[in-house]
Amino acid sequence: MAADALSIIPGAVLRNLSDKLYEKRKNAALEIEGIVKQLATAGEHEKISAVISLLISDFTNSPQANHRKGGLIGLAAVTVGLTSEAAQHLEDQDSRVRYYACEALYNIAKVVRGDFIIYFNKIFDALCKLSADSDANVQSAAHLLDRLVKDIVTESDQFSIEEFIPLLRERMNVLNPYVRQFLVGWITVLDSVPDIDMLGFLPDFLDGLFNMLSDSSHEIRQQADAALSEFLQEIKNSPINEFVKLGGEQLVPYYADILGAILPCISDKEEKIRVVARETNEELRVIQADPTEGFDIGAILSIAKRFSTQSLGYKIKFNCQAPSV
């Protein structure tokens, strides 16, 4: 199959792809990208496979460093040429086209792995919709692609959780049971990755998870409950200052209880405890405490009075908003 690619890609392009100069390799890759886009438009899938096979066998598996570099940048070019072409067909009106688009993207992702990440948000958005596709074959193909993309994300160091969260937040209010399962699955997978701090973004999708607890599907309720239980355990294992950061204004009704718990710790004999207590106190102070939202001034004053008689070496301050009239 690799030999067939020699008639597709000009010899000069292949020579430049293994050149010692980066600019020549880059320009060769751009030409390959253009060739692959033309092949994709024409439906020449076997020729595209031949190009990929050539890049792997003659370049990325080569003992020569410049060949390997050229092979990798060439595969990246194939990814750009194919992924953008295939992804736009994931929402085609014809179910067979959607199926083949999933199949094509699966084969691309399986080869290029980490380079697939740059298209993650676009692919995720499409997979979210395909999870509820009316065609069972399309759903099955989408599930296979979804599992592969999950594997790629969990092993990648280039996945951006910051760019992904807004997209997840937009989808959390969808009521379709298949989409809900899809979303909880992704939340659970991402939370299992050590380098991804899903807990820090919990407020962005917490309401959506809570809403799923009342879903008519027992399976969805179980999945949402399991995800929430895992986050609760993580919160329990985190210092209280992290909990306060996450809760923000939602903790206003419990302001006095938290304050009463941390104030004695500010003068604790253990330095680490004192540091966490002070940090928590600072986090509490920046919360906009509105009496109309459950902020109990009387309870706060009682706490302040109780501890003001002790020489603990700190000042009590809080940010209280006057109720609007």
From TrEMBL:
One Gene Ontology cellular component annotation held by this UniProt entry: PAS complex
Protein name per UniProt: Protein VAC14-like protein
InterPro entries: ARM-like, ARM-type_fold, Vac14
GO BP annotation list: phosphatidylinositol biosynthetic process
Transmembrane annotation, as ranges: none
Pfam families to which the protein is assigned, alphabetical: Vac14_Fab1_bd
Taxonomic source organism: Dichanthelium oligosanthes
Record PANTHER family: PROTEIN VAC14 HOMOLOG, TAX1 BINDING PROTEIN-RELATED
